[in-house]
Amino acid sequence: MLLERIYDEDLSQTSYLIACQASGEAIVVDPRRDIQVYLDLAAQHGLTITAVTETHLHADFLSGVRELAAATGATAFVPGTGGEDWQYGFEAERLGDHDTIELGNITITARHTPGHTPEHLSYLVTDGAFADEPGYILTGDFVFSGDLGRPDLLDEAVGMENTRFAGAKQLFASLQDVFLTLPDHVQVFPGHGAGSACGKAIGSLPSTTVGYERSFAWWAPHLKNDDEQGFIDELLDGQPDAHAYFARMKRQNQEGPALLGERVLPREVSAEELMRGLDSGDLALIDTRPLAEVHAGTVPGALNIPMLSKAAGHIAWAFDPDTDEAQLVVLARDAEHAAVYGDHFVRVGIDSLIGYVPSLEGLPSTVPSVISPAELEGLGDVPLVDVRTRNEFAGGTIPGAQQLSCGKVLFHQSELPEPDSGPIVTFCQSGLRNTVAASTLRRAGFDIIELDGSFAGWARWSAEQSRTAPAERTA
C-alpha cells in the first residue's frame, strides 16, 4: 500500500493519495482544485487514479473532486449522509455509513462521523495484503492532532443559528461510537494542520494515533467520564473567527465547483491596457511586493497580497467574485510565476486571473497613508479598527479600538464608519495582515491609515513611554 500526504501550506489543508501498488489503482481524498500535483504523483508511481472522494462539504477551500474525476475518468464519491439539506448537487456516487470502496487489496470503509458538519465521513483504510483490520483512518475535519473540528462553523460563517450545540453533541457521540472503538495502534491522518480556522488548537504533527489522542487529547477526560456538558463547554469556548468567504465555499462545494479544464498561462498585460482596465473597473491589480515596498508607493486601488505562500487565503479576504466582475492582473516576473498565483487563487474559487505585469513602471503611483504610534497619540478621535482575530483582540488591544477581522472587512463594511466620514486607522499584530485589509478597504472607497508596526509596534512604543515618563517627571 502507498499513502501519500499532500499538504497545502497556504490553507493548512491536507489531501491524500492512497494506492494499491499491486493493482496500480489509486484514490485521492479531499483534493484541492489545482490538480496537477495528483496527476504528477500518480505518474511518478505508475498509478491510475480510479476514484476520488472527500470527507465533507468544505468551507475553507474549493473541492477538486469534480475536477480530478473529469480529468482522469475516475469515479467520484461524496458523502450521502446528513439528511436532505446536506446532499451534493452534482453527479457522483453517494456513500453511506459502512459503504466501501475497493482498490485491489485495499478497502476504504466510510464511517459517518457528524459534528463538524452533519454529513461528515471518515475513512477507515485496510491493507488487505497485510492485515484484515483497518490500520489507518482519514478523519477529515473530525479529529485533528490534538484537537477536534469546530462545530460552530455553520453558525459563524454560513449564518445558521444555534447549530453549534447539536454539532457538539454529535462530535461527542462520534468520538464514542466510532473513534474510540478503534484499537490504539490505528494511525490518524487529519484534514488540516496548525493555522487552519477549522479548529482552535490544531497541532502541527502530520498524523497521530487513536491511542495517543485517547490518552492525551484535551477532550479525552470528558469522554472517559461521560461528561458531555463539560465537553461541549470546553469545545465551544474560544473558537477563532471564521472567514466570511467560507459561506461561498460551502455553497459552491455543494452545488459543484465549476470545471476549469485545461488552463492556459496568464498573458503579459501592457501598462496602457492595465490603466484602461483599472479606470473602467474591468481589471484589478494584485501588488505582490512586500509591505515596505508597497508603503513606498503602489498603484491606486491595487490589492496587496504580499506572500505567495498565503495567496489563497489573502485573496479570498480581499476579493469577492460573487460581487466583483473585475479580472485580475498580478505583479509577477513571468507567466509561469503568475500561474502559480493562479493555482492558489482557484483553490478558493477565484478563477479570474488573466494576466500579469512584470513591473509597475509606467503606471500611476500613490503612497499609502501610514502613521506612527506617536503620531496616533495626537491624532484625536479617529476610529481604530483591529483586524486581528477576536481571541487576539481579547488578549489586549489599543484603547478605543473595535475588532473586525481581516477575513471579514470586505464583507462586513456596514460595521465600519461610512467611507466618506473620514479616515480610519487599521492595525493587526505586525502589519502583514493589515496591508491586505487596508488595501481591500481602500479599493472599496475607504480612507485608510495604516498603523506603522501595527499592535506590536504600538505596544513597544507604549512600554517605552511608560519607562521614560517617571524619569521625565523627576527631571
Features:
475 residues, alpha/beta, Metallo-beta-lactamase, Chain A, Oxidized Rhodanese, domain 1, 3 domains, 6-stranded mixed sheet, 16 helices, 24 strands, globular, RibonucZ/Hydroxyglut_hydro, metal ion binding, Rhodanese-like_dom, Rhodanese-like_dom_sf
Please tell me about this protein's structure.
This protein has three domains: 2-255, Ribonuclease Z/Hydroxyacylglutathione hydrolase-like (Metallo-beta-lactamase, Chain A); 267-357, Rhodanese-like domain (Oxidized Rhodanese, domain 1), CATH 3.40.250; 369-466, Rhodanese-like domain (Oxidized Rhodanese, domain 1), CATH 3.40.250.10. Helix content is 31%, strand content 21%. The protein has helices at 36-45, 65-72, 153-156, 163-177, 210-216, 220-224, 228-236, 246-255, 271-280, 291-296, 311-318, 335-346, 373-377, 390-394, 432-443, 454-474; strands spanning 2-8, 13-20, 25-29, 48-53, 75-79, 93-95, 100-103, 106-112, 121-127, 136-140, 143-144, 147-148, 187-190, 208-209, 267-268, 283-287, 303-304, 327-331, 353-357, 369-371, 384-386, 402-403, 424-427, 448-451. A six-stranded mixed sheet has the order 1-2-3-4-5-6, with helices on one face. A six-stranded mixed sheet has the order 7-8-9-10-13-14. The longest helix is centred in the C-terminal third of the chain and has 21 residues, at 454-474. The radius of gyration is 24 Å and the shape is globular. The mean pLDDT is 95. This is MBL fold metallo-hydrolase.
